[in-house]
Each structure stands twice: as C-alpha cells, then as structure tokens.
Amino acid sequence: MADIRIENLRKEFGSFVAVQDSSFTVHDGEFLALLGPSGCGKTTTLRMIAGLELPSSGKIYLDGEDVTFNRASARDIAFVFQLFALYPHMNVRKNIGFPLLSQGMPKAEIRQRVDETARLLQIDHILNRSVSGLAGGDRQRVALGRAIVRRPKCFLMDEPLGTLDAEFREVMVHELRELHNRIHATTVYVTHDQHEAMAMADKIAVMNHGVIEQFGTPQEIYAKPATMYVADFIGSPPMNFMRFTSGLKSGDTSILLDGVDVAVPEIHQDMAESELALGVRPEHIRFSDASPLRGAVYGSEYLGTNQVVAVETRGSLIKARVPANRTFRIGETVGLEFNPVKLTLFDCTSGRAVPSQLYQETRHG
Ligand code: ATP
C-alpha cells in the first residue's frame, strides 16, 4: 500500500477553476473522505489522482514517486465508481478474477487470489453462483472483491453507495469500514453525505467551490470547525450562529451577546470592531431558568431519545438538543446556557474561526 500526496493541485476548465491549489497527504493505510456538495470539485480531484484527468498545475505523488503525468494504467490504483457494476453473464469467481485475467496472470494464480479475496469478504461459498441471482449485499461484496483482488496501491471510490436505499447504505457503510480495518488499503472516498464521511473516514477534507476548507479527523472537524461553512455543513442540525458586532482583544474570555455576558474560550487575537458570530452546537445548549439570555420557543421536533427545540432570541433562531422528557409550549420563554469550552467565534467577513483556546493545539490547514 502507499501514501498519496498532492501538492498545489489545480484544475481549470477554460476560465472556470474546479479545483484550487489543493494540498494534502493520505498516509499509508488511511481512509480519506472528500466531502462537499455537488460541484465542489471532489470527483475532479479524485480523477486527477487516478490519472483520468490531467491537472492544470500541481503535483501528485504515489509512495513518494511523482506520478502527475503517468497514465492511469501505470498508477496501480483501483477506481471504484459504483459497486454494483458486475458482468451479468459471468459467475462470481469469473467476475472477481476478471481484472487479473485481463493482466494475463496465470490461471492457477488467479484461482488462488480469487479464493483469498472471497474468504476475506466471506463470499467463498457463492463463488460458483451466477451474479444475476445474488442479493444486493452479495453483489456489492463481489464488486468490492473485483477491486481488491488486484491488490492495488490504493483505492479511489466515487460515491460507491450513491444508488442504494438508505437502509442498505447504512449496512454497506459499516461493511466498507470493516473491510478497511482488515486490509488497511489507502483509500480516497468521495461523498456528499456527512454521515458516510464521519462514520468511515480517518480524515475528512471538506470542500467548497474547489477549495479545501478544512482537513482533519472527523472529531476535529466537528468540534473545531475552521470556517462557518464547515460548521454549517457538518452536524444535523448544524451549528447555530448568533451574530453580533464587537471588537475582541487577545486574552478576552467573554463576549456581550444580546446585552448578556457570555463566557467563551480565551481569545488569542486582537480584532478591530467587526461583525462576529458565536457558534454553538445544539447539544451544547441547556435550558436554565437562571440564565439572563432569554428566548421564546418557536417549535420542537421529538426524536425519541431527545428533542430539538427551536428558540427565537432577539436576533437569531437557535436549535437546542435537549432531553425528551419535558414538553414545551410554543411561545414559552426559556433561558439559554452554553457550555463555554465548546463555543467557537467566527469572523463573519472572512468566515474563519477566531483563534482561541479551543484551537490552540490542533488546527489543520
Ligand atoms: P458531483 O457530486 O455533482 O459530481 P463534485 O464535487 O464531484 O460534484 P466535480 O464533478 O468535480 O464536482 O465538478 C466540479 C465542477 O467542475 C463542476 O462545476 C463541474 O460542472 C465542472 N466540471 C467537471 N468536469 C468538467 C469538464 N470536463 N468540463 C467543464 N467543466 C467540468
């Protein structure tokens, strides 16, 4: 297996910039998710790594070797578009062995490799069955088998679960991660689905208009979003923003919001008077009668183990995830309390998080 390193990778289609100077490393055995909405440049990035698209500028290294201008076939990468694409007239063994047959590998060796792969995927009992009669899960495993039988240096997957219904998708997310834990293949996985990325990936690159807004572990991206875009894209419901105008000084540990002092992680930068936003995740809000920060209940969504209650404050609509054991009336006044160590401040002009105690040690570019 291999490291993938991309440096200042850029792709222009005429005057349109699809990927803007991306740089990151996927270490040997890591699972990276490229996450973002439609059109943000995920597939273009993946196709450049695969050798299916030439970059306008920048470099791609595979295991330290510069492969930027190597043909796709010379990169030893398996590209999986959609896991269901099987050859219907062949049985399972022939489907899995096909890539090796195309390489001209001797039959005995193909047989051995296919047997090994089938054992790994726990489909060795169906090797002689026709793929057309298989259930969805087994078809998916066969398709995966065909990708891993070659033992490529890495896997590139473009929304491989895109066509599956929600329930089966969840099963496959679990299976793909399990498989990754067993074979530790360096993987780059494109998805627009935050749940898939959070559940499977060791690292996530969140993309927006061709730019990587943040690169980090799922935990870092969730707890310490580098930008308002990331904070809003990740989380369901997403992070709440409460806008206010203020100047901040390095060393400040509170802000004035709706006329109320709110404790925040210590600020590490002086800022001129500017428009700021306090970011708070719904689960870091508590209702407390003693809190002077007041709002009126706007609505609630019962979710069984908890509920999401929308509260209208002076300037914002805030969603709080609170225990399900209390019923709220529309219009009822509640006091809001935030967990101070979990709060993020953003500069609304740049959209970036304001450097603070929260970000001291683990910021990624
Ligand atoms: P999706 O999930 O919809 O595929 P994506 O994030 O993978 O989204 P890309 O397919 O990488 O996005 O496309 C990024 C942008 O580049 C899009 O605006 C797309 O229209 C544009 N683009 C992609 N390929 C080409 C091409 N060959 N010629 C012109 N524009 C292109």
How many individual domains?
2
Q: What is the percent of helical residues?
A: 10-25%
Order of helices and strands: EEEHEEEHHHEHEHEEHHEEEEEEEEEE
Which class best fits the helix and strand makeup? alpha+beta
- Termini separation comes to 25 Å
What is the alpha-carbon Rg in Å? 24 Å
Strand order of the largest sheet: 6-7-8-3-9-10
In what range is the share of β-strand residues? 25-35%
| Small molecules in complex | adenosine-5'-triphosphate
The total strand number stands at 20
Taking all residues together, what is the mean pLDDT? 91
State the helix count: 8
CATH homologous superfamily classification of the largest domain:
P-loop containing nucleotide triphosphate hydrolases
Shape: elongated
CATH topology of the largest domain: Rossmann fold
CATH architecture of the largest domain: 3-Layer(aba) Sandwich
Largest sheet composition: 6 strands, mixed
* Sequence stretches where pLDDT stays below 50 over 5 or more residues: none
Subcellular location: Cell inner membrane
Membrane topology: Peripheral membrane protein
Protein name: Multiple sugar transport system ATP-binding protein
GO biological process, one term: carbohydrate transport
Describe the structure.
This protein is an alpha+beta fold. The chain folds into 2 domains: 4-223, P-loop containing nucleotide triphosphate hydrolases (Rossmann fold); 228-364, OB fold (Dihydrolipoamide Acetyltransferase, E2P) (Beta Barrel). 23% of the residues lie in helices and 34% in strands. The protein has a 6-stranded mixed sheet with strand order 6-7-8-3-9-10, sandwiched between helices. The longest helix has 18 residues, at 166-183. The two termini are 25 Å apart. The model has no long low-confidence stretch (mean pLDDT 91). Adenosine-5'-triphosphate is lined by residues 13, 18, 36, 38-44, 192. The site of adenosine-5'-triphosphate has 11 residues, from helix 1.
